[in-house]
Amino acid sequence: MGGVKARQRPGALPVPAERGVSALTPAPVLDRWNADAAGIRPAALDRGDNVITMFEVIGEDWWTGGGVTAKKVAAQLRAIGDRPVEVQINSPGGDMFEGLAIYNVLREHPQDITVKVMGMAASAASVIAMAGDTVQIGAASFIMIHNCWVVAAGNRNDMAEVAEFLAPFDQAMADVYAQRSGRTAAECAKWMDQETYMSGSVAIERGFADELLSADQTKVDEKAKASDAAVNDVRAMELALVAGGATRGDARARINKIKGTPGAVLEPADTPGAGGDPELAAAIERLAQSFRS
After folding, report:
1. In the chain, which segments carry CATH 3.90.226.10?
2. Coiled-coil annotation: which residues (predicted)?
């Protein structure tokens, strides 16, 4: 039996007034999304004008110029008006604080919201999924929950300050997961500590989703899959450089210098193995392999 449907939406989640800390998706989550969920899209090409799709990272995406933001979602809801909404999600997450803001925007919508997890709702995207009055999930899809993940630098006093700053956000997320699922906040916090992936059936059993999506509602778009995976490899490189002490600006500049901007059309000479500078091509490939591992 599935979970109880059309639960009362939990209250608003706290969002920091000043984004002095960026809450990000860890690189291993991007790798998991590349392997299991990249490129999954709705099977039907046409969709209603009351559908919001979230097939990108959460928050503004520097690498593609896209990303799902609270501002964009609010504009889409205004355009839809006082009608039921369907939210289709396949996202590795991203900016957790932006995810909290999107959740708050959705929970204020006066009509029912149906969330469809079509591939993965990880990290910040899992918080957004909890805004659904009904949550549907593919049998081979995943909901992934974890604590706020940030990159910080400093001494033990700085680290203690960051930990204190993050604690209320982790607690708020645990409370929302608990209210949605019917589990205790302590159980949800334990799953968050373990960075837990829940398949469709497990998510329903634990109350994070209500029912399975039929298999014919999704398909794999190979072109989108290749594009998603390529950009996520670069995002993982950026995170690794930041974790090593670089600023995000410096990390992006270094990656652009070595690899070029993702999505740019490469000349044959710029493609590894297709001519050009073989030393540079080999260096790029070694760099990509090191981050993948």
Report:
1. 27-220
2. none
Tokens of 272: 């590894």
Contacts of residue 80, Cβ cutoff 8 Å, sequence gap at least 6 = 49, 50, 52
Burial of 276: CB neighbours in 10 Å, binned 0-12, 13-18, 19+: middle
CATH 3.30.70.270 for the 27-220 domain, yes or no: no
Q: What tens digit of pLDDT does each residue of 179-197 get?
A: 999 999 999 999 999 999 9
pLDDT, tens digit (0-9, with 9 covering 90-100), for 74-132 = 999 999 999 999 999 999 998 888 999 999 999 999 999 999 999 999 999 999 999 99
CA distances from 158 to 46, 164, 208, 248 (A): 50, 10, 35, 19
Cβ contacts of residue 183 below 8 Å, gap of 6+? 177, 206, 207
Please say whether the dihedral angle defined by the alpha carbons of residues 51, 43, 236 and 270, taken in this order, is positive or negative: negative
